[in-house]
Design brief:
By secondary structure, the chain is mainly alpha-helical. The chain contains ten helices and no strands. The protein is globular. The model has no long low-confidence stretch (mean pLDDT 93).
């Protein structure tokens, strides 16, 4: 099952790992490997990237950041090919993402000239950027005929667990998710409260917004590490937030319901 109907698919700069993710998922389709196993593996890949940063093996750090991105896509792909949708996996994936993003920025602060304060600002900026992408993407997915609606536009109520998972686990992970992401979701919603009324977004708009996708953010970090531009990573992501004004402005001024 695709996340989007055919007419709603777009060039997603953050989704470069999807072909590899699909290969991994198809290879694991008939095994006991679960999507949660892949989520745990992308967490391990992220921690290895941190170790490589700390030991100044920047090429390897970039490799494991990109591998983390591929495995991040593979857990969802495996869930789809096994037909085992899961809120446990959906929330665990997001919790791992935000924790790793924080660790990445703190590590980069440690190995660069950037202060801890700037690193914290960059972390907030990265999360806001990712939330803008997810906000529009989830709206598109929920409105797309036959699209994946596991993610909700408004995460306000604990969802009912699927048959293959525990309601107690879903309850706990949902609370953690809301605690970590709630402020970012509310901020972006307040900036563009009417976006959910739009039936669909043109492909070119979603392609532009995908520059804020986590996969593309990690690719930028990997490239800057490989080019030994460590000192510029944190300032870059702070300045990169200016695109929010452009994306939200385009939606509010030109793409209306």
């Amino acid at each position: 099952m695709s996340k989007l109907a055919a007419q709603d698919k777009f060039l997603d700069f953050s989704d470069y790992g999807r072909p590899f993710a699909q290969i991994i998922a198809n290879q694991l389709k008939n095994t006991r490997f679960t999507p949660v196993h892949l989520t745990l593996l992308f967490g391990v890949s992220g921690l290895i990237a941190v170790y490589c940063m700390l030991t100044a093996h920047y090429w390897w750090a970039g490799f494991f950041l990109i591998l983390k991105s591929i495995l991040d896509a593979a857990d969802g792909e495996l869930s789809r090919v096994k037909n085992t949708p899961s809120y446990t996996g959906r929330y665990l994936d997001s919790v791992f993402d935000i924790i790793l993003n924080f660790v990445f920025l703190m590590t980069i602060s440690h190995i660069s000239d950037s202060s801890l304060t700037l690193a914290l600002i960059a972390f907030l900026c990265i999360q806001l950027q990712g939330t803008v992408y997810n906000f529009y993407y989830v709206i598109l997915r929920n409105n797309s005929v036959g699209g994946d609606a596991t993610s909700k536009i408004f995460e306000t109520e604990t969802p009912k667990a699927f048959l293959n998972e525990s309601q107690k686990t879903v309850n706990v992970l949902f609370k953690v998710y809301v605690m970590l992401y709630g402020i970012f979701d509310r901020t972006v919603y307040r900036l563009d409260a009417m976006a959910y009324k739009v039936r669909t977004f043109p492909n070119w708009f979603m392609t532009l917004v995908s520059l804020y996708g986590l996969g593309f953010q990690l690719l930028i970090i990997a490239m800057m590490l490989a080019l030994n531009l460590v000192n510029f990573i944190i300032p870059f992501f702070i300045l990169y937030t200016v695109l929010m004004v452009i994306f939200i402005g385009i939606r509010r001024l030109y793409l209306r319901s």
